[in-house]
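Example record

One chain of 301 residues, shown exactly as stored in the release files.
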Amino acid sequence: MDELKREIDRQIHSNRGKNLFHESAMFSMEFIKSGAGLSTRLAGLTDEQLTILADYATQKSLEEFCRINQYYTFDPKATDELKGIYIQLFSAIKQQGGPGTASPEAHYENLRQWLLKTNPFAGAIYPGMDQDLEPAHCHEYSAGLQLEILRLGISNLVEPILDIGCGKQGNLVQYLRSQELEAYGIDRFAGGAPYLYQSGWFEYDYGTLHWGTVISHLGFSNHFVHHHLRNDGDYLKYAAIYMKILASLRPGGRFYYAPSLPFIEQWLDKTRFNVISHNDNPGQYGSSTIEKLSHEAIIKQ
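Predicted structure tokens for this chain:
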């Protein structure tokens, strides 16, 4: 299985950054020459092992798609459909005698149609672009930079803490835990630690009156702005999750995020939430802090 996974890695790397919507895509994207006996090795796999291999290929493909465009979103149904594409491919190789007898054109057309179905905006922006795409400028920022941008002092953080879109390594979560704070993170590619949960922000159960602090740096609110500005954006879905996040805060809890969301912050109930905006750097995105007012604070108003 390990060698088969390495072969999947090599295959994905060989087509890294290729534009599925370029006119020459079906001719430029091909299967690399694999090690001897690939079909034999696949033939020896049980259905359960073949599914595990398809899960691995699906995860690696999703990481590559999001490396190119961080605004791609893939819900559980889309992920299952992509997995089905890989099961179909592996079954064809297994039954027909190797990747040379499976059709790369059919496979990459399946991927293109799946991407059009799950993220239709791709069909509007990529056909006219180059054959090789530049990746999105998206990084997993250091804990120190995130704390600075969000105006966060760790002595003021109320536990438990949730970092939404924490990144694969969860840099900020790791740092907060090193300071003996109860911190957790969610990200669609997170893993490797029991306090980093692999989940999208649409699927995660935030709970009610649970978190003392919620954080998201260039994560949830960045995508919310993107959908707010798009003509076909799913901004209502993001607004619903935004309100769920606020509902998950304990009285006195705070939601820190960047960039700011003035188009929804202005409508928050001022008897329930205190909005603090930081937009003092012209030309740069701002950050916001939403505090859920405690009962005592509401009485004083």
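Notes: The mean pLDDT is 87.
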